[in-house]
Design brief:
Strand content: 35-45%
CATH class: Mainly Beta
CATH topology: Tachylectin-2, Chain A
Order of helices and strands: EEEEEEEEEHHEEEEEEEEEEEHEEEH
Distance between the termini: 17 Å
CATH superfamily: Glycosyl hydrolase domain, family 43
Structural class: mainly beta
Number of helices: 4
Radius of gyration: 18 Å
Helix content: under 10%
Largest sheet: 5 strands, antiparallel
Length: 338
């Protein structure tokens, strides 16, 4: 197998603090200036409500992580949404600062797992009928935001990527500017159909001069193969290689099974896809990837780090825990190019 799962998986599990006693998953990971691995985890203290926040951990070896502080470093309340949450961080070092792109919602739903795919979500504190369908839809829709920090503990919100009311997640920053501009992978869920050139939600790209105002997104890729037939979305921040931008992505089939693939994009124009894996390089196989508290059959990366010639892929398992798989970077590049 190309990727080797770490024998201590899952390497990060819930517990320890009330705000993460239920689940932890979909973590961002990067290397600090001193070579240490830093992690921003998504964690929840309960399913009722499913209110996610962001915790900070650190590791010297990329496997054994410990919390830096005993409280979340970013919550919905810190963004002005007392009943809202923060989800699925992606992390890069850019312009001398840490830059995090996150997903947030103004209200946190109750989550009732079904065991066969997507859970049932409800908002018991909101009266959808009284609000009206349009107002309710905009209020509960998630939105991607951007925050910066010097120390990974104190974060300053600097702007939004898409407009309010547009379900636009899997927003992932490039680790450097392209053509002198900030670049962001996106996944606007409503951009589907003949008008948009994709049969299902896909991967798009936008550019900005100031991290606040973003161009209309351009399509990079849509779902092609059976294992990604329902939708695809970017996973971890792109990695610059001599061959192009190496980008991990997740694909979802009609049964809601999440698998992992990779693309290679042109360094100067990422809308040019130079290579793409036809089959998933990782799929749910182990017990902790097939069974969990929230969604079964999920491997969902949010981070990849190159360490000693190997790619460390950090991924969420069934919205329950965090695991690690590694492979030789050269072997992965060879596969994607072929």
């Amino acid at each position: 197998m190309l990727f080797e799962r770490h024998p201590e998986n899952p390497i990060v599990v819930p517990g320890l603090y009330d705000w993460r006693r239920c689940i932890t998953f979909n973590a961002a990971v990067a290397k600090d200036a001193d070579g240490a691995f830093v992690m921003l985890e998504r964690a929840c203290g309960s399913l009722h409500p499913l209110r996610s926040c962001i915790g900070l951990l650190r590791s010297d070896d990329g496997v054994h992580f410990k919390h830096v502080v005993d409280q979340p470093v970013l919550t919905g309340a810190m963004l002005g949404f007392p009943t809202g949450d923060v989800q699925d961080p992606r992390l890069v070092r850019l312009d001398g600062k840490w830059l995090m792109v996150f997903v947030t919602g103004k209200d946190s739903p109750d989550c009732v797992p079904t065991g066969v795919g997507a859970p049932h979500y409800s908002h018991p504190n909101l009266d959808a009928k009284a609000m009206g369908d349009e107002a309710f839809g905009k209020f509960v829709a998630v939105r991607s935001g951007i925050a910066v920090s010097d120390d990974l503990i104190r974060w300053r919100h600097v702007g939004w990527v898409g407009p309010e009311g547009l379900d636009d997640r899997d927003n992932i920053p490039f680790p450097e500017k392209i053509g002198g501009r900030y670049a962001m992978l996106r996944r606007p869920a409503a951009y589907v159909g003949e008008k948009y050139g994709t049969r299902g939600p896909g991967m798009w790209i936008s550019y900005s001069d100031d991290l606040k105002t973003w161009d209309e997104p351009a399509l990079v890729a849509g779902p092609l193969f059976d294992w990604e037939g329902m939708k695809i979305g970017g996973s971890a921040p792109p990695l610059r290689t001599e061959a192009g931008w190496l980008v991990s992505y997740h694909g979802v089939d009609p049964s809601s099974r999440y698998c992992v693939g990779f693309m290679l994009m042109d360094l100067n124009d990422p809308t040019k896809v130079l290579g793409r894996t036809r089959k998933p390089v990782m799929q749910p196989e182990t017990y902790y990837e097939r069974f969990g508290l929230v969604i079964p059959n999920v491997v969902f990366p949010c981070a990849n780090v190159v360490h000693e010639g190997r790619l460390y892929l950090y991924y969420g398992c069934c919205d329950t825990s965090i695991s690690l798989a590694t492979c030789r970077l050269d072997d992965l590049l060879e596969l994607v190019i072929k």
